[in-house]
Write a structure and sequence with these properties.
Blueprint: H1 2-16, H2 19-37, H3 51-83, H4 86-90, H5 97-130, H6 136-163, H7 167-183, H8 186-195, H9 200-209, H10 211-223, H11 232-240, H12 243-271
């Protein structure tokens, strides 16, 4: 267990020194600061004002940026150690494959979620300073949705990295999967429904199985009780399932799928040649 935390600590230190982490952290911090000090919290659009408007804008950014940043950085995690022979060196110490693999996953979880958590804390601090009402219950659920989104894509990245040894190929596969999931959001699904003979319930099933679309629908539903900005497919899903049940599903499903992918990635990693 000590070795597991040691690997996690080393991965965190290495990540904090990397260029991708600096860009990732600076991007989310700058965007949230921009939202909070650009007058967004002082204006009202479609009934949204205060921190709610800033968080709605933050959702749109998270839907696009968070998955691809996590995928690309995580796919590189094991493959980079393998390509630089660092993996072979680390495993020359009294360290098991399980400790190395899950230690890297633990460290990377901390690394990818810290900038998101910092952005939310920044939002709360500015809210206190400006005297804006803070929707604590919404923020708590939003935190859970962000965490589950991070876990599913981190686990998918580790799975790809374990199955595909070549770093460039792994990043290409990760980018392709991100594009596919990003394409199957509300408008694209409705377009597919209108132009094909696919059953509408198949379209809705695709929506609730897609982690990106699932996060988008659940997160927007927290801020939009009247479903004014949700979309047609999302409206149907939320009118079919109670909102509380759907939000719980949107948190639990990606977490469970992420755990399964992470474990499957470990078995694939342990059965392949390490170098």
């Amino acid at each position: 267990m000590n070795n597991l935390f040691l690997i996690a600590k080393l991965d965190v230190k290495e990540s904090f020194r990397s260029r991708w982490f600096v860009i990732y952290a600076a991007l989310f911090s700058a965007l949230m600061i921009g939202f909070l000090f650009s007058g967004v919290t002082d204006s009202r659009v479609l009934g949204f004002s205060g921190l709610t408007r800033a968080l709605l804008l933050f959702i749109q950014i998270c839907v696009i940026i968070v998955p691809i940043f996590i995928l690309i950085s995580t796919v590189r995690s094991i493959n980079q150690d393998r390509d630089t022979n660092l993996l072979e060196y680390i495993l020359s110490f009294p360290l098991s494959l399980r400790e190395y693999y899950f230690g890297k996953a633990l460290g990377r979880t901390f690394v990818v979620f810290v900038p998101l958590l910092f952005a939310l804390l920044l939002c709360v601090i500015v809210g206190f300073i400006k005297g804006v009402a803070i929707p604590w219950s919404v923020l708590t659920l939003y935190f859970g949705l962000l965490f589950s989104l991070s876990i599913i894509f981190l686990s998918l990245g580790f799975f790809i990295s374990s199955v595909i040894k070549n770093q460039e190929t792994g990043q290409g596969v990760a980018f392709l999967l991100w594009l596919i999931m990003l394409a199957f959001i509300d408008l694209a699904l409705i377009g597919l429904l209108m132009r094909s003979s696919v059953d509408e319930y198949v379209i809705y099933a695709i929506a609730i199985l897609n982690p990106i679309e699932l996060f988008r629908i659940a997160a927007l539903s927290l801020f939009d009780p009247n479903l004014a900005v949700i979309g047609t497919a999302s409206y149907f899903i939320l009118s079919t399932f109670p909102k509380a049940t759907f939000v719980a599903y949107a948190i639990i499903y990606p977490l469970l799928l992420g755990i399964i992918l992470l474990v499957c990635g470990y078995f694939a990693f342990s059965k392949k040649d390490l170098v």
